[in-house]
Amino acid sequence: MSAPASEGLSPTDAPARQATFREVFAVREFRPLFGTFLLSTAGDELARVALTVLVYARTSSPLLSALTFAIGYLPWLLGGPLLSTLADRLPRHRVLIATDAARAVLLAGMAIPGMPLPAMLLLLFLVSLGSPPFESARSALMADVLDGDRYAVASSLTNVTLQLAQVLGFVAAGALVAVLDPAAALLIDAATFAVSALWLWATLQRRPAPVHESGDGPRSLWQDTGDGLRLIRRSPRLVAIVGVLWIATLFAYAPEGVAAPWTDEFGKGATELGLLLAANPLGVTVGGLVVARLVRPDLRERLVVPLVVLSLGPVALAGVAGLLLGPGSLSYGVVVGLMFVSGLGATWLIPLNVSFVQAVPSAYRGRAFGVAVTGLYGVQGLGALGAGLAAEGVSAGGAVAISGALGLLAVTPMLVAFRRTQGSVAAPAAGEGPSGA
């Protein structure tokens, strides 16, 4: 199940005239930003499947297999806000190039024959530490090089491409891991980061670090993060939106966390593992295009509640179906189909993003989005890890079924609050200025 791209939570307001894809790709610096994103995403999925297969083959532990998935998200939970400030304190092109180069070296180190599993997981964690500064710098630089609706169109294109890259990455990964040594898959991922670093170095304009402008001098990360947290905490509308975002995502990531042992329960191998992982992002891609192009903007917010139910319900049904039907191609095919339907429902993120933008005052959007995105990545890791922990006591399919059912129960109060607070806007505390000081 794919992670929603951070550009979906964008503070940029679209103008009246809609930009075209041709106009977006005409911007010279957007092409490497988009191309390296696609390249690195596909490479990451290849390495992720390879590591999951490798860890499960060595340990036969669903928990350690889930931990492999979770490590990729935990840096956002543990240090996302702190690491993201590098994108505002250093020249952004340098942040992009340096993080990609470092990740290429670390991934090559993971491919060394005989690398102990604890050392490999540590290197994976260090690789994942590059995500917060890289994603923050890339999102900020996209806003620098694209103006008006071109930024909004580019963000939508990036979100859809993320899902397609994950579909292709998972499918290709399952096929490649079936015929290649996992170390070879890690080297391929290292090569994608090396190519990305060289591409960005050769094409991005050299810009100085952003200048901090404040009457009280530069503000610390903790001050800005505190402003965003306080704004969300004071607003029932934002609490409901962020609650839906985090809770629905938390419980939707169970299939990823136990994908390897779950596939094994069907008597399937690495190729089928890739197909199972690809089903959800493929559903997100199809559903996202339908919601964005065929549903009127004034109707989208009404779809949030049924879409959230559609995203979590099939997760619970998939776990139950796998248990009832037992091993075999029939149960595997039913589960893949249900995960595709879950992906269709996961397009609730599109109208929820719009509701978030409308509820946050313009001067506070950056801080509020930082809080939401950091929590989003954090709960993805916790969801995968929690499913692995549950699978230690029950089967992987049982863990998936429990996660989907608990998710529906847990998100219901937030969905009720989301409906009840429709149309309200968060307000800063009395006496706070635009900077939140």
From TrEMBL:
The chain crosses the membrane at residues 63-84, 104-130, 151-177, 238-255, 275-295, 307-326, 332-356, 368-390, 396-418. It is a multi-pass membrane protein. It holds the Pfam family MFS_1. Keywords: Cell membrane, Membrane, Transmembrane, Transmembrane helix. Gene3D superfamilies: MFS general substrate transporter like domains. PANTHER family: INTEGRAL MEMBRANE EFFLUX PROTEIN-RELATED, STAPHYLOFERRIN A TRANSPORTER. CDD domains: MFS_MefA_like (cd06173). This is MFS transporter. The keyword Transmembrane helix applies. It is found in: Cell membrane. It comes from Blastococcus deserti.
